[in-house]
């Protein structure tokens, strides 16, 4: 069993109104010095395989085809 | 002209769309369920609005990858007209049948109100009943209508007349780039738009500004 974590974040230059709202809320809670906040998504995957290289290639294809919208999002894959 | 309306779990504007198509063309559209892989011969396929698959992952993301979308893509490649309204528009961009992406509204709020639309390109199969620059009233109801594409992509679409509808008179409800409300593919047979023209087709709706879109797409004289 291979466990992996995929992190999807908005590309630089893509406006993130949710991140902005969180940034404002942190400020109103009294946290000072918080710069830009960007919101993203995390997917934890379990792959029934022992071939790490193949699993990583498969996960990359999953990111391209479904998990990320590459028009607006970047993704990174970590094998845990 | 024969038309079809796609039905997927979570879409809820299908009945409004069926009513609009029936009233304007005089013929009831056929319905296409999500598992269908063969679509009968029709001239227009409509993907209506709603919340397909609960808007899970991203609006339209799951629907865009269902088998029925492969069948719709094949029809579009043969020249059949495809119209996506609201969630239907989100599904078409997720399926990469239209460029760009639809993001959360800049206000973060669900907007349900009437907006003004400018007909930016009346020389399409969906907008011939309107005149260039005409201002329409149209309802919107969405949470993720904030259109985004790379600056170069937007510039190219502007040049090629692919921006069909723009929010006018300061009524942009979602922060979309260049006030974009509706776009068409390069070939001119796939149109996606966030506003709901099917909800403004007769006096009982308070107006019929949406009628011209269906009259154009179905080749019937606008009433």
TL;DR of this structure?
The complex is a heterodimer of chains A (80) and B (223). Chain A is an alpha+beta fold. Chain A has helices spanning 17-28, 52-67; strands at residues 2-10, 40-47, 73-79.
Could you explain the architecture of this structure?
The complex is a heterodimer of chains A (80) and B (223). Chain A is an alpha+beta fold. Chain A has helices at residues 17-28, 52-67, and strands at residues 2-10, 40-47, 73-79. Chain A has a three-stranded antiparallel sheet with strand order 2-1-3, with helices on one face. The mean pLDDT of chain A is 94. By secondary structure, chain B is α/β, with parallel strands linked by helices. Chain B contains five helices and eleven strands. In chain B, a hairpin with a 5-residue loop joins strand 10 (180-184) and strand 11 (190-193). The radius of gyration of chain B is 16 Å and the shape is globular. The two termini of chain B are 16 Å apart. The interface between A and B is medium-sized, with 11 and 20 residues.
What is the element string of chain B, with H for helices and E for strands?
A: EHEEHEHEEEEHEEEH
> How does the major sheet of chain A shape up?
3 strands, antiparallel
Helix fraction of chain B, binned, reads 10-25%
Strand order of the largest sheet of chain B: 2-1-3-4-11-10-9-6-7
H and E order of chain A: EHEHE
Distance between the termini of chain B: 16 Å
Helix count of chain A?
2
* Radius of gyration of chain B, CA atoms, in whole angstroms: 16 Å
**What is the global morphology of chain B?**
globular
Name the shape of chain A in a single word: elongated
Q: Which strand order does the major sheet of chain A show?
A: 2-1-3
Roughly how much helix do the residues of chain A carry, as a percent range? 25-40%
This entry's quaternary arrangement is heterodimer
Count of strand segments of chain A: 3
